[in-house]
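Quick one, C-alpha coordinates below. Sequence please?
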Protein backbone atom coordinates (compact mmCIF):
# COMPACT_ATOMS: atom_id res chain seq x y z
CA UNK A 1 0.00 0.00 0.00
CA UNK A 2 1.29 3.45 -0.90
CA UNK A 3 -0.23 4.62 2.40
CA UNK A 4 2.22 2.36 4.29
CA UNK A 5 5.13 3.13 1.97
CA UNK A 6 4.72 6.81 2.81
CA UNK A 7 5.67 5.98 6.41
CA UNK A 8 8.40 3.39 5.93
CA UNK A 9 12.16 3.67 6.35
CA UNK A 10 13.10 0.09 5.49
CA UNK A 11 12.46 -2.21 2.53
CA UNK A 12 12.29 -5.80 1.36
CA UNK A 13 14.82 -8.20 -0.11
CA UNK A 14 12.79 -8.17 -3.34
CA UNK A 15 10.95 -4.97 -4.32
CA UNK A 16 8.55 -5.09 -7.27
CA UNK A 17 6.86 -2.02 -8.78
CA UNK A 18 4.68 -3.25 -11.60
CA UNK A 19 3.24 0.09 -12.66
CA UNK A 20 2.54 3.61 -11.48
CA UNK A 21 -0.70 5.04 -12.82
CA UNK A 22 -3.05 7.61 -11.24
CA UNK A 23 -4.48 6.29 -7.98
CA UNK A 24 -5.09 7.43 -4.39
CA UNK A 25 -4.67 11.09 -5.32
CA UNK A 26 -7.29 11.88 -2.70
CA UNK A 27 -4.60 10.81 -0.20
CA UNK A 28 -1.32 11.82 -1.89
CA UNK A 29 -2.50 14.96 -3.65
CA UNK A 30 -0.27 14.74 -6.75
CA UNK A 31 1.21 12.07 -8.99
CA UNK A 32 4.65 13.24 -7.93
CA UNK A 33 3.84 12.50 -4.27
CA UNK A 34 2.25 9.16 -5.17
CA UNK A 35 5.32 8.17 -7.21
CA UNK A 36 7.62 9.25 -4.38
CA UNK A 37 5.74 6.97 -2.00
CA UNK A 38 6.16 3.99 -4.35
CA UNK A 39 9.84 4.81 -4.88
CA UNK A 40 10.55 4.37 -1.17
CA UNK A 41 10.54 0.62 -1.85
CA UNK A 42 13.76 1.21 -3.80
CA UNK A 43 15.28 3.99 -1.70
CA UNK A 44 15.75 1.77 1.35
CA UNK A 45 17.10 -1.31 -0.42
CA UNK A 46 20.76 -2.27 -0.09
CA UNK A 47 23.09 -3.18 -2.94
CA UNK A 48 22.65 -6.93 -2.45
CA UNK A 49 18.85 -6.80 -2.95
CA UNK A 50 16.73 -7.16 -6.09
CA UNK A 51 14.32 -4.68 -7.69
CA UNK A 52 11.78 -5.58 -10.37
CA UNK A 53 10.32 -2.81 -12.53
CA UNK A 54 7.81 -2.98 -15.38
CA UNK A 55 9.53 -2.15 -18.68
CA UNK A 56 6.27 -1.22 -20.43
CA UNK A 57 5.06 1.24 -17.82
CA UNK A 58 6.69 4.71 -17.98
CA UNK A 59 6.05 5.38 -14.30
CA UNK A 60 7.69 2.20 -13.06
CA UNK A 61 10.54 2.21 -15.59
CA UNK A 62 11.24 5.85 -14.81
CA UNK A 63 12.45 4.75 -11.36
CA UNK A 64 15.27 2.51 -12.67
CA UNK A 65 17.87 5.17 -11.80
CA UNK A 66 16.99 4.70 -8.12
CA UNK A 67 17.68 0.96 -8.07
CA UNK A 68 20.59 0.22 -5.72
CA UNK A 69 20.91 -3.52 -6.27
CA UNK A 70 20.20 -5.92 -9.12
CA UNK A 71 17.51 -4.90 -11.62
CA UNK A 72 15.10 -7.36 -13.24
CA UNK A 73 12.25 -6.37 -15.53
CA UNK A 74 9.30 -7.81 -17.45
CA UNK A 75 7.68 -6.82 -20.73
CA UNK A 76 5.10 -7.84 -23.32
CA UNK A 77 7.87 -7.37 -25.92
CA UNK A 78 11.42 -8.76 -26.27
CA UNK A 79 13.85 -7.04 -23.92
CA UNK A 80 16.54 -4.63 -25.04
CA UNK A 81 20.09 -5.93 -24.98
CA UNK A 82 21.57 -5.84 -21.51
CA UNK A 83 18.28 -6.20 -19.64
CA UNK A 84 17.44 -9.30 -17.61
CA UNK A 85 13.95 -10.55 -16.86
CA UNK A 86 10.81 -12.11 -18.30
CA UNK A 87 9.17 -11.17 -21.59
CA UNK A 88 6.77 -12.21 -24.35
CA UNK A 89 8.11 -13.03 -27.79
CA UNK A 90 5.90 -14.38 -30.59
CA UNK A 91 3.39 -15.90 -28.19
CA UNK A 92 5.99 -17.46 -25.88
CA UNK A 93 6.79 -16.31 -22.35
CA UNK A 94 10.51 -16.54 -21.67
CA UNK A 95 13.16 -15.50 -19.15
CA UNK A 96 16.65 -14.16 -19.80
CA UNK A 97 19.51 -13.52 -17.40
CA UNK A 98 22.86 -12.68 -18.91
CA UNK A 99 23.49 -15.25 -21.63
CA UNK A 100 21.05 -17.76 -20.14
CA UNK A 101 17.70 -18.16 -21.90
CA UNK A 102 14.75 -20.09 -20.52
CA UNK A 103 11.46 -20.69 -22.39
CA UNK A 104 8.53 -20.72 -19.96
CA UNK A 105 5.12 -21.36 -21.54
CA UNK A 106 2.85 -20.33 -24.38
CA UNK A 107 0.64 -17.30 -23.85
CA UNK A 108 -2.50 -19.34 -24.54
CA UNK A 109 -1.68 -21.49 -21.50
CA UNK A 110 -2.56 -18.50 -19.28
CA UNK A 111 -6.28 -18.79 -18.61
CA UNK A 112 -6.92 -15.15 -17.78
CA UNK A 113 -8.31 -12.41 -20.00
CA UNK A 114 -6.30 -9.41 -21.11
CA UNK A 115 -2.75 -8.29 -21.79
CA UNK A 116 -2.54 -6.89 -18.26
CA UNK A 117 -2.88 -10.42 -16.87
CA UNK A 118 -0.12 -11.70 -19.16
CA UNK A 119 2.01 -8.84 -17.85
CA UNK A 120 1.11 -9.89 -14.30
CA UNK A 121 2.21 -13.45 -15.05
CA UNK A 122 5.53 -12.18 -16.42
CA UNK A 123 6.00 -10.12 -13.26
CA UNK A 124 5.23 -13.19 -11.14
CA UNK A 125 7.89 -15.21 -12.99
CA UNK A 126 10.46 -12.47 -12.41
CA UNK A 127 9.57 -12.27 -8.71
CA UNK A 128 9.59 -16.05 -8.37
CA UNK A 129 13.00 -16.28 -10.02
CA UNK A 130 14.36 -13.60 -7.69
CA UNK A 131 12.99 -15.56 -4.72
CA UNK A 132 14.54 -18.81 -5.94
CA UNK A 133 11.22 -20.64 -6.44
CA UNK A 134 11.33 -23.95 -8.38
CA UNK A 135 10.51 -23.49 -12.07
CA UNK A 136 8.14 -26.46 -12.17
CA UNK A 137 6.08 -24.99 -9.33
CA UNK A 138 5.86 -21.61 -11.07
CA UNK A 139 4.81 -23.17 -14.38
CA UNK A 140 2.13 -25.27 -12.69
CA UNK A 141 0.79 -22.25 -10.83
CA UNK A 142 0.66 -20.14 -14.00
CA UNK A 143 -1.20 -22.81 -15.97
CA UNK A 144 -3.66 -23.72 -13.21
CA UNK A 145 -4.46 -20.24 -11.90
CA UNK A 146 -8.01 -19.13 -12.77
CA UNK A 147 -8.09 -15.71 -11.14
CA UNK A 148 -9.41 -14.24 -7.90
CA UNK A 149 -12.85 -12.99 -6.84
CA UNK A 150 -13.82 -9.48 -7.95
CA UNK A 151 -11.19 -9.30 -10.70
CA UNK A 152 -12.82 -10.07 -14.08
CA UNK A 153 -14.72 -12.84 -12.29
CA UNK A 154 -17.32 -14.60 -14.44
CA UNK A 155 -20.70 -14.55 -12.68
CA UNK A 156 -23.29 -16.03 -15.02
CA UNK A 157 -24.82 -16.08 -18.48
CA UNK A 158 -28.29 -14.55 -18.71
CA UNK A 159 -30.28 -14.27 -21.95
CA UNK A 160 -27.08 -14.89 -23.89
CA UNK A 161 -25.09 -12.10 -22.18
CA UNK A 162 -22.10 -12.96 -19.98
CA UNK A 163 -21.82 -11.07 -16.68
CA UNK A 164 -18.44 -10.25 -15.11
CA UNK A 165 -17.55 -8.85 -11.68
CA UNK A 166 -14.51 -6.57 -11.69
CA UNK A 167 -15.38 -4.71 -8.48
CA UNK A 168 -11.69 -4.50 -7.53
CA UNK A 169 -11.21 -1.94 -10.33
CA UNK A 170 -11.40 1.21 -8.21
CA UNK A 171 -9.43 3.52 -10.52
CA UNK A 172 -10.11 4.51 -14.17
CA UNK A 173 -6.85 2.90 -15.37
CA UNK A 174 -8.02 -0.46 -13.99
CA UNK A 175 -11.34 -0.12 -15.79
CA UNK A 176 -9.49 0.60 -19.03
CA UNK A 177 -7.53 -2.65 -18.64
CA UNK A 178 -10.80 -4.53 -18.11
CA UNK A 179 -12.44 -3.01 -21.20
CA UNK A 180 -9.44 -3.98 -23.34
CA UNK A 181 -9.81 -7.58 -22.18
CA UNK A 182 -12.97 -8.07 -24.25
CA UNK A 183 -13.73 -8.08 -27.98
CA UNK A 184 -17.46 -8.54 -27.44
CA UNK A 185 -19.94 -5.63 -27.22
CA UNK A 186 -19.85 -4.24 -23.66
CA UNK A 187 -22.45 -2.95 -21.22
CA UNK A 188 -20.31 -1.13 -18.62
CA UNK A 189 -21.36 -0.36 -15.04
CA UNK A 190 -19.29 2.62 -13.98
CA UNK A 191 -19.34 4.56 -10.71
CA UNK A 192 -18.71 4.64 -6.98
CA UNK A 193 -16.63 7.28 -5.19
CA UNK A 194 -13.92 9.28 -6.96
CA UNK A 195 -10.33 9.46 -5.65
CA UNK A 196 -9.50 12.76 -7.34
CA UNK A 197 -8.38 10.86 -10.44
CA UNK A 198 -8.51 11.82 -14.15
CA UNK A 199 -11.37 10.23 -16.12
CA UNK A 200 -10.62 11.65 -19.57
CA UNK A 201 -8.67 8.71 -21.01
CA UNK A 202 -11.31 6.27 -19.81
CA UNK A 203 -14.03 8.41 -21.37
CA UNK A 204 -12.23 8.28 -24.73
CA UNK A 205 -11.92 4.49 -24.53
CA UNK A 206 -15.59 4.12 -23.54
CA UNK A 207 -16.67 5.95 -26.67
CA UNK A 208 -14.44 3.66 -28.75
CA UNK A 209 -15.35 0.32 -27.18
CA UNK A 210 -18.51 0.43 -25.00
CA UNK A 211 -22.04 0.24 -26.42
CA UNK A 212 -24.02 0.94 -23.23
CA UNK A 213 -22.88 2.82 -20.12
CA UNK A 214 -24.73 2.58 -16.80
CA UNK A 215 -23.44 5.17 -14.30
CA UNK A 216 -24.14 4.92 -10.57
CA UNK A 217 -23.06 6.21 -7.19
CA UNK A 218 -21.55 9.32 -5.68
CA UNK A 219 -19.28 10.12 -8.63
CA UNK A 220 -22.02 9.75 -11.25
CA UNK A 221 -22.15 13.47 -12.03
CA UNK A 222 -18.38 13.70 -12.37
CA UNK A 223 -18.29 10.66 -14.68
CA UNK A 224 -21.17 12.01 -16.77
CA UNK A 225 -19.29 15.27 -17.23
CA UNK A 226 -16.14 13.40 -18.29
CA UNK A 227 -18.06 11.25 -20.78
CA UNK A 228 -19.93 14.18 -22.27
CA UNK A 229 -22.59 13.51 -24.91
CA UNK A 230 -22.90 10.05 -26.44
CA UNK A 231 -20.53 9.54 -29.35
CA UNK A 232 -18.59 6.88 -31.22
CA UNK A 233 -19.67 3.35 -30.37
CA UNK A 234 -21.74 4.31 -27.32
CA UNK A 235 -25.48 3.85 -28.00
CA UNK A 236 -26.99 4.58 -24.58
CA UNK A 237 -25.85 6.26 -21.37
CA UNK A 238 -28.03 6.19 -18.25
CA UNK A 239 -27.57 7.30 -14.64
CA UNK A 240 -28.72 5.44 -11.51
CA UNK A 241 -28.68 6.13 -7.79
CA UNK A 242 -27.04 2.87 -6.71
CA UNK A 243 -25.61 -0.41 -7.93
CA UNK A 244 -28.79 -2.47 -7.57
CA UNK A 245 -30.66 -0.15 -9.90
CA UNK A 246 -27.65 -0.21 -12.25
CA UNK A 247 -27.85 -4.01 -12.45
CA UNK A 248 -31.51 -3.81 -13.48
CA UNK A 249 -30.77 -1.12 -16.09
CA UNK A 250 -27.89 -3.15 -17.49
CA UNK A 251 -30.10 -6.22 -17.82
CA UNK A 252 -32.61 -4.24 -19.89
CA UNK A 253 -30.08 -3.18 -22.52
CA UNK A 254 -27.90 -6.32 -22.57
CA UNK A 255 -28.22 -8.38 -25.74
CA UNK A 256 -27.19 -11.93 -26.55
CA UNK A 257 -23.46 -12.15 -27.26
CA UNK A 258 -22.50 -9.10 -25.22
CA UNK A 259 -20.61 -8.72 -21.93
CA UNK A 260 -22.07 -6.97 -18.89
CA UNK A 261 -19.07 -5.66 -16.97
CA UNK A 262 -19.00 -4.18 -13.49
CA UNK A 263 -15.67 -2.35 -13.54
CA UNK A 264 -16.55 0.81 -11.60
CA UNK A 265 -13.41 2.95 -11.72
CA UNK A 266 -14.35 4.38 -8.32
CA UNK A 267 -14.13 3.07 -4.79
CA UNK A 268 -17.02 1.33 -3.05
CA UNK A 269 -17.19 3.50 0.06
CA UNK A 270 -20.18 5.57 -1.02
CA UNK A 271 -22.44 2.51 -0.77
CA UNK A 272 -20.48 -0.46 0.63
CA UNK A 273 -17.78 -1.25 3.20
CA UNK A 274 -15.25 -2.32 0.55
CA UNK A 275 -14.88 -3.60 -3.01
CA UNK A 276 -15.52 -7.19 -1.85
CA UNK A 277 -18.97 -6.36 -0.46
CA UNK A 278 -19.75 -4.43 -3.63
CA UNK A 279 -18.72 -7.41 -5.75
CA UNK A 280 -20.71 -9.89 -3.66
CA UNK A 281 -23.83 -7.72 -3.86
CA UNK A 282 -23.39 -7.40 -7.62
CA UNK A 283 -23.15 -11.17 -7.97
CA UNK A 284 -26.22 -11.69 -5.79
CA UNK A 285 -28.31 -9.19 -7.77
CA UNK A 286 -27.09 -10.53 -11.12
CA UNK A 287 -27.96 -14.11 -10.10
CA UNK A 288 -31.44 -12.98 -9.03
CA UNK A 289 -32.29 -11.81 -12.55
CA UNK A 290 -34.96 -13.92 -14.18
Amino acid sequence: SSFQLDQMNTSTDIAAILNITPNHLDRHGTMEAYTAAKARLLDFQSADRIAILGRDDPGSWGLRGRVRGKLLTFSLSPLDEGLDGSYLDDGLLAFREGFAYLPLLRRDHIHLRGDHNVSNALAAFAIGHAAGLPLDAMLTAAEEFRGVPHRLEFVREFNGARWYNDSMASAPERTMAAIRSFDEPIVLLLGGRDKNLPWGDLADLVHQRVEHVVIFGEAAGLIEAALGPRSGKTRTQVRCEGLREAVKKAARVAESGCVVLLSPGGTSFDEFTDFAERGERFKTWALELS
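Residues 47 and 69 are 4 Å apart (CA to CA). The first strand starts at residue 14 and ends at 17.
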